[in-house]
Write a structure and sequence with these properties.
The protein is of the alpha+beta class and about 140 residues long. Helices cover about 25% and strands about 40% of the residues. The protein has a six-stranded antiparallel β-sheet with strand order 1-2-6-7-8-5. A hairpin with a 3-residue loop joins strand 6 and strand 7. The longest helix is centred in the middle third of the chain and has 20 residues, at about 55-75. The two termini are about 20 Å apart. The relative contact order is 0.20. The model has no long low-confidence stretch (mean pLDDT about 95).
Length: about 140
């Protein structure tokens, strides 16, 4: 399934869908392909937790936004799509450096979308986290 939004259209949509004061902390869209969206996030000091690593809530937010982005890119500009479930496994410490989120559609139905999101840094063979996210569609 090919996306119905381009990278620029998706980025513009996300910029309008989230409050401007938090948008920068939710990652940037860098690629849109068939059934796939890639986002990046450069963590800032507000995202650090004790031990000098990126906090779990930051990783979960990036995961959720990446899943939302791939759904919107393929289902269309539906602001009312809402997270139905999010299961995440944190696999290793996430350093204070660029995080890549790869979101892939597993299924896009009429009422429910299921997305696999993998977070990594430097080497995609060493995942920081893996998540399955489901979205209820309007």
């Amino acid at each position: 399934m090919n996306p119905c939004l381009t990278l620029n259209e998706l980025a513009e949509f996300l910029d309008g869908a989230f409050p401007s004061e938090t948008r920068a902390s939710l990652g940037a869209v860098v690629d849109v392909q068939a059934e796939h969206v890639r986002m990046t996030l450069d963590p800032n000091p507000s995202m650090v937790r004790p031990g000098g690593i990126v906090s779990g809530p930051t990783l979960m937010a990036l995961t959720d936004v990446a899943a939302y982005a791939v759904v919107v890119a393929h289902h269309g500009r539906k602001e009312m799509a809402v997270t139905n479930g999010l299961s995440i496994s944190f696999l290793r410490a996430c350093k204070m450096e660029t995080i890549i989120a790869d979101a892939r559609l597993l299924r896009l139905g009429r009422r429910l979308a299921t997305v696999d999101v993998r977070l990594w840094q430097q080497d995609e063979n060493y995942l920081v986290a893996q998540s399955t996210v489901s979205y209820s569609l309007p």
